[in-house]
Write a structure and sequence with these properties.
By secondary structure, this protein is of the alpha+beta class. It has 15 helices and 34 strands.
Length: about 625
């Protein structure tokens, strides 16, 4: 999404006319569009009618309007339909979202402490190592223990500061990396010597690789009799983690958080890696950072732990965070001591947020406080436009709407169950749910818990996930919520089948049944200023209501159907209902002539839910 630049040197690259078309070198047409371009913008660049783009979207299973903004993946598919190569440009560039530093910024850069995250499988000793380091190393010149757990802390080792992120591995990478910001410099991968490489170990490895962050291996619990260090190194090598004594370039330290063995060696390894990285930052520019943790304090309001990435964070500065404005009212370290400022790689508690931010949100100082509200409002507007304009999919309600519009014919299902037997039984039962209009299409089935890959498939195939006797991890549930993919959980096959049967029945277009609610006979016609001709009538049966649908019948011929009453009067008074036997004046939209004897029939349309046979 396009962002508003908040640095001193504004870098706004906007295209006021049609997006530029680039000459392709090998005959293939190359076009350039912004992410979340609208249907109309795409049509102009491709030099086609917007209705043609809407038709292409429908062929792909997406509902779109002229002004609707589309996701990048859909834009790519459309470009491919026209044989074009697609290039992306950013309408507004914000240097906060660019990890590389400009030459101007590096001119005044100074060395900064390294930021380290410790990751690994549960029970392999991550917390124990963190606690040991924290208890034996405090920043020089400071006293007292840590009184507030803020998600990060800083230690002093041989006159070098090191910042440790004390957060779960996922939070340290996924949410922050998704925003284009690098939260950590070094990853300590903890593996227990008495165990082996486990699923969370592999997950940590993959996240570190994706973030392109150097890894130091800490083989922990080496004090245990059953420790097998070589086995751990061998298993790591199978995951492309080659330590130095196995011919690789990755440092490996044998540690014991219980005895303290190897902890000093681990600290030395961090310093060595930091020296190689040559970490620098400019303290003289507008401050920018990343939210590591946050909470709501009853007395102080929203508080967030901010890891400073650039500049110097000071009391009183105006800032933007998560598209909302704020002003720094106080800064506190992990000991709850109030301080005046924080520099790059410092992690501090900040007061002054308008609302509680999320882990991974970007914190950015704004130069002019007068522009603060304007920038915040503009960012919120862009965010809302994208959220509400982009294609929404994958909930039963949205699929139902598409089916009723005739754009989708099947309810797509992904089955995740506890066994092959459960999958087979569910599959056979669901396949029996069929109708000429709507059917059940099983796009994927597998054994095991619902995963993020299942959610991605559900999003791509417009499917609902059916989870039978399996769990949905919280991070997967969060991804599903953000992607609008519905997950339904069951532990009894009958309940699952009945629920899906009811869902399919709910997707069927209802039968429409007309019910007559009243009849009136026209006695005479007269005219009222500003309204026009009125049918002076008498209600012969039922009631005539202001919101009734109207049919006008003259000598057995239907003059108008589905008409609307624009005026209903009793004498000179406007009324909403006229009962049997009473006289009234009726004006029907579009009718200028009434004749004595005309019959006015009031009716309503009832929707009757249909059932599967």
């Amino acid at each position: 999404m396009a962002e508003i630049d908040t640095s001193r040197k504004k870098k706004s690259y906007k295209k006021t006319k049609k997006e530029v078309e680039i000459d392709a070198t090998e005959g293939e047409r190359v076009i350039e569009l912004a992410e979340y371009a609208s249907v109309d913008e795409i049509a102009k660049v491709l030099d086609v009618n917007s209705s043609e783009i809407i038709a292409k979207c429908l062929q792909m299973g997406y509902l779109a309007t002229v002004n609707q903004r589309l996701e990048w993946e859909i834009i790519e598919l459309i470009a491919g339909e026209y044989g074009c190569e697609l290039k992306r440009f950013e309408e507004v560039v914000d240097d906060l979202f660019v990890t590389a530093h400009s030459d101007e910024e590096l001119k005044n850069a100074i060395s900064r402490p390294s930021v380290v995250t410790i990751m690994g499988h549960v029970d392999h000793g991550k917390t124990s190592i963190l606690d040991y380091i924290r208890e034996t190393n405090v920043v020089a010149g400071e006293s007292g223990g840590i009184t507030q757990r803020i998600g990060a802390y800083q230690v002093d080792y041989k006159d070098n500061k090191i910042t440790f992120l004390d957060t779960p591995g996922h939070e340290a990478f996924t949410s922050m990396r998704a925003r284009g910001a690098k939260s950590t410099d070094i990853v300590i991968l903890v593996v227990a010597a008495d165990d082996s490489v486990m699923p969370q170990t592999i997950e940590a490895i993959n996240h570190a690789k994706a973030a392109e962050v150097p890894v130091i291996v800490a083989i922990n619990k080496v004090d245990k009799p059953e420790a097998d260090i070589e086995k751990v190194k061998r298993e790591l090598s199978e995951k492309d983690i080659l330590v130095e004594d196995w011919g690789g370039k990755i440092q490996s330290i044998n540690t014991s958080a219980k005895t303290g063995e190897g902890i000093e060696g681990l600290m030395e390894a961090i310093l060595l890696e930091s020296e190689v990285l040559d970490l620098k930052a400019n303290t003289e520019i507008l401050s920018k950072g990343i939210v590591i943790d946050s909470r709501l304090d009853k007395g102080l309001g929203p508080i967030a732990t901010v890891l400073v990435k650039k500049g110097t964070l000071k009391i009183g500065i105006p800032f933007i965070c998560n598209n909302f404005p704020g002003k720094v009212r106080a800064i506190m370290n992990e000991r709850n001591d109030r301080i005046q400022s924080a520099e790059p790689s410092d992690a501090v508690q900040v007061l002054g947020f308008d609302q509680v931010p999320q882990s991974g949100d970007i914190f950015a100082e704004v130069e002019n406080e007068s522009d603060l509200k304007k920038i915040a409002n503009e960012r919120q507007r862009i965010k809302r436009e994208i959220e509400f304009s982009t294609v929404k999919k994958n909930t039963l309600d949205s699929i139902s709407a598409q089916i009723k519009e005739g754009d989708v014919n099947n309810l797509h299902i992904i089955i995740k169950a506890d066994s092959d037997g459960s999958i087979e039984a569910l599959g056979e039962s669901l396949e029996k749910i069929e109708h000429d209009e709507v059917g059940v299409d099983i796009v994927h089935k597998g054994v095991g818990n619902v995963t993020e890959s299942d959610v991605l498939l559900g999003e791509a195939s417009n499917a609902v996930i059916l989870a039978f006797n399996v769990q949905t991890p919280s991070n997967t549930r969060l991804q599903a919520d953000q992607s609008n993919v519905e997950i339904r959980s069951y532990n009894i096959i009958y309940q699952a089948v009945e629920d899906l049967k009811l869902a399919v029945e709910g997707l069927l277009k209802p039968d429409l049944v007309e019910e007559i609610v009243g009849e009136a006979i026209v006695k005479e016609t007269f005219k009222i200023p500003k309204i026009g001709f009125i049918a002076g009538s008498q209600v012969e049966s039922g009631t005539i209501t202001r919101d009734s649908l109207i049919r006008l019948v003259r000598e057995e011929e239907e003059i108008i159907k589905d008409g609307k009453i624009i005026s209903l009067k009793r004498f000179k008074d406007d009324v909403s209902t006229v009962e049997t036997g009473l006289e009234c004046g009726i004006a029907i939209e579009g009718i200028k002539k009434y004749l004595p004897g005309d019959k006015i029939i009031a009716y309503k349309i009832n929707e009757i839910k249909r059932k599967l046979s």
